Amino acid sequence: MGQEAKATLRFEPWQKICYYPGKIHGGYQSFLMDQLFADCCQPAVTANLTMSFLRPLPPDSEILLEVWPVEIKGREINMEGSVQISEPYSGRKVLAARATALFILPRPCSNERDSKATDDGGIFSAA
Asked: Among residues 30, 65, 92, 110, which is most buried (max CB within 10 A)?
């Protein structure tokens, strides 16, 4: 839980995930980061994910995703991450996006609470 992780991707995405020719859609980048964060924080779930896009990601470049824990406090796990790509001529890794995320560990199940129906008037209330 709250571990550091790296993933290097090399793929040729369909144009469907590129918002312009040659630029991977930011939503797809967010999905990849969220998945890597989640893999490091199981069984925690995403409460907040913020991406800052610094440069476009060409679909034919090698992409390096990195995530790491910043703080673990109670049930909250604060994480940060980066998306890096290789410069075309030098091959040097450059920062393409930054991410921050808050993950929350679920509360332990209580048999007493789970066995009683709640009547809060909402969609989950007992009939």
From this structure: 65
